[in-house]
Amino acid sequence: MKKIDKIFYKSKSMSLDLYLEKVLYDKNFGYYQKKNPFGIKGDYITAPNVSNVFCEMIAVWLVSFWENLKKPKNINFVELGPGNGDFCLALLKTLKNFPEILNAINIFLYEKSEKLTKIQKEKIESKKVSWIKSLNKIKRDPVVFFGNEFLDALPIKQFRKINNDIYERYAYFKKNKVDFVFKKALKKQINKLKNYQLLKKDGIIEYPEYGFKELSIVCNKIKKLNGGALFIDYGYKTENNIDTLQSIMNHKFNDIRENIGNADITSLVNFDLYRKYFNSNGLVVEDVINQSQFLQKMGIIERVKLVSNKMGHKEKLDLYSRIQRLINPSMMGRSFKVIFTKNKNCNFSLAFK
Q1: How many of the other CB atoms lie within 10 Å of CB of 336?
Q2: 3 state DSSP class of 240
Q3: Tens-digit pLDDT profile for residues 221-273
Q4: CB proximity list for 66: less than 8 A, separation 6 or greater
Q5: Partner of 264 at 20 to 30 A CA spacing, among 45, 96, 245, 324?
Q6: What global pTM score does this model have?
Q7: Helix ranges, the chain (H)
């Protein structure tokens, strides 16, 4: 626990979101800085790892959006949290079938983890791809942001409402152990919750302050340069006022007090809150749909039928089982949601109407 002690060196307690920022992203200690969490040998599997057809559907959506923008000669595509690089590789492969946009596109990978950046650079060799540490590097031309399981990894604050009293959750270090405690919330934090009508019910309230800071740049770039942002993540549309923090290690649930720095910690995404956030920051969100609806409207069933025509029986069974994982309501189909935000003057709504 000596390494954990170092993140508490200034204070024996800190707000939950600051604590999560440190245990996930600290250069020397953070989970994302020291291992590749993706795949069977990692801690979890994401949609691009399940099937390239998922990536193809995003690529087709992107091509359609670019056409709606009247085919600008240059367009920026920014992947937020590109993981092990599988999505970017599949995107490049698919866009080879669309040479006009391939010529126009510049792909930026926004990655905080040095470990994952190294893995991505070993996989991806393309003059079309570059890595950025700041979203302010995007200075001109329309921009499309994309994040698959990006929002769930952003540190959150947690508050507890009991009648009219509001408390904020803190992490503290005592006797070589990390535990959590609720302290009376500051008025400025309570006012932020009020702004988003989050204090209607008693229970646990989760507020992604770190995420909102990151996304303020996204909103400004979309308003200034034109474009939009597409996010896919597991979460909910109706506020449930429960603690959704969860830790995963070796594809199994882990106690968030254990294996600190060696296990992932995420939270379910409150999509209604993000919808309010985007709308209040000058953008438009028409609807939040589930992953199954999005992928089927984008033609994933038809694509799979076409691809499987050239496959043997075993390959075909494998492909269909992977697609079922993506679209079946009892698997990823319903629990994963899709949100698209755009400029107020943009009329593009493919898959969302």
Answers
A1: 22
A2: coil
A3: 999 999 999 999 999 998 889 999 999 999 999 999 899 889 999 999 999 99
A4: 72, 75, 101, 104, 105, 144
A5: 324
A6: 0.95
A7: 2-7, 16-25, 31-34, 47-50, 52-68, 86-95, 99-104, 114-123, 187-195, 209-225, 271-280, 291-297, 300-308, 313-327
